[in-house]
Structures are given as C-alpha cells and as structure tokens.
Amino acid sequence: MGESLEKDLVQSPGKPEKVAVVGFLLRGLLGTLFVAAALSKIQFPLEFLSEVYGYGVLGSDTGILLSLLLPWLELLLGMCLILDILVFESLFLAAGLLALFLIAQGTALASGRVISCGCFGGRGVEDHIGWYTVGRTLILFLLCCSLILLRRREESNNSENS
C-alpha cells in the first residue's frame, strides 16, 4: 500500500499546486516566527542585550550592535517571507542566521552555561538553552533549507514553462 500511495503522489497532476501550497504555509509560519521573535526583542531591548551578553562571546560594542540590528533584520526577513518579497534571498539569510544560532547555542550548551537562549527575547520568556532549544533551531534551519530547495525547484519549473 505504501508504494501505491507514493506512486499516486508522484504521478498526481495536482502535486505541484499542493507542494506550492504547503511551501506557502510553511514559509508563512517561518516568517511569523521571525516576526514574533523580533517584536519581543524590539519591545525589550535591554533584556535582549543581557541575553546576548549571556553567551559570553561578544564584546561590549559588538553585543550592543548585534542587539540593536538583529531584531530589525529578523523583522525584515519575517515580513519578506510572509509577503513573498525576495523570498529566496530571505530564506538564504534566515538559514544563515539559524546556522549561527545553532553554533552559539551548541557552544553555550557544551560549555555548561545556564542562560536564556534569547530566541524570543524579552520579559517573561525564560527559555534556557538545552537540547530542546537546539533541536527547535535545527528543525527551523532544516525547514529553511527545504524551502530554499523548493523555491529553486519552483523557479526552474517556471523558467522551463516560459
């Protein structure tokens, strides 16, 4: 039965449309997460700065610069993903950010730091770094990579049909 289902999915005439809808929904979810993360950091900038310093890898000036710019970059990326603007570029940058977040979280976890991940920075959000936060970030990174591949496939299909 599994082979039959797989065969039906591969040969389904509506498959490209279904894949596009799933991609649209997942991109919207990812964009919404980036916007939510950004807004909490923008609303509570000093708390987010404290979370940035908690990682212990950035100097004072760099930490301040990162805590000021990162939320606005996350907001911009999230809005681009939601509004279908520069999607490939936004997904690529989001994947890069998530890769950096993975490295930072993994380093903090390996060194035994007990700190907030800063993912949804601000008041009332105490999400300490652990395997859960690393796993969540890894899933988002893989989702981003999958959406990049899907987008490239859609663009190549569109160029072949032109």
Secondary structure layout:
Layout: H1 2-11, H2 15-43, H3 45-54, H4 60-83, H5 87-110, H6 131-161
Helix pairs in contact: 2-4, 2-6, 3-4, 4-5, 5-6
Folded structure, characterized:
This protein is mainly α and 162 residues long. The protein has one domain (18-161). The chain has six helices and no strands. The chain has helices spanning 2-11, 15-43, 45-54, 60-83, 87-110, 131-161. α3 (45-54) packs across α4 (60-83) and α5 (87-110) runs antiparallel to α6. It is elongated and about 50 Å long. The termini are far apart. Mean pLDDT is 85; it is low at 1-12.
Helix proportion: over 70%
- pLDDT averaged residue by residue: 85
Total number of strands:
0
Order of helices and strands: HHHHHH
Runs with pLDDT <50, length 5+? 1-12
The biggest beta sheet is recorded as: none
What is the global morphology?
A: elongated
Tell me the radius of gyration: 18 Å
Q: Please indicate the percent range of residues in DSSP E strands (runs of 2 or more).
A: under 5%
Count of the separate structural domains: 1
